[in-house]
Amino acid sequence: MSKALIKFIRLSPTKTRLIAREVQGMNAELALATLKFTPNKGARYIANAISSAVANGGFEANEVIVSSCRVDAGSVLKRFRPRARGSASRIRKPTSHILVEVTKEEKKDKKNDKKAQTTTKKVAKKKEE
Fold it and tell me: Does residue 75 register a pLDDT over 80?
């Protein structure tokens, strides 16, 4: 398992989480191809984090899956806008942290599957007798 963390992205966590949920559980290569054609600002950052996590583990993109893609809230930049009669209103500019974890995809061995099938058949025959 390898991780990648991108911090203090100037994008709202709620907007970024929408894209992060789509990518979880996907093959990394498929996720990168999907994010390439997603027209959101967050898709670029998540794609960058996935490719970084794949490179951190020394894997190829087609042999790993995105086990988790988490978006946490970062610090909020507070700004003020002048309003009528000398008052002011607050503007919140949220930031987010993106954490991506990739794990090696486990391929099932045909030999192990055949052994499991033969043992279950043997057990079933013994029960019949």
Answer: yes
Give me the helix-helix angle, 13-23 and 28-36, nearest 10°: 130
Q: What's the rounded Cα separation, in Å, for the pair 5 and 104?
A: 18
Distance of CA 44 to the CA centre of its chain: 13
Instruction: Please write the tens of the pLDDT for every residue from 82-107.
Output: 999 999 999 999 999 999 999 998 77
What is the tens place of the pLDDT at every residue in 23-45?
999 999 999 999 999 999 999 99
Query: Comparing C-alpha atoms, which of 32, 10, 13, 8 is closest to residue 22?
Result: 32
CB 66 within 8 A of CB 47: no
Cα separation of 64 and 49, whole Å? 14
Question: What's the token pair of residue 121?
Answer: 């058949």
Q: Is 107 helix (H, G, I), strand (E, B) or coil?
A: coil
Closest CA to 74 of 23, 6, 20: 6
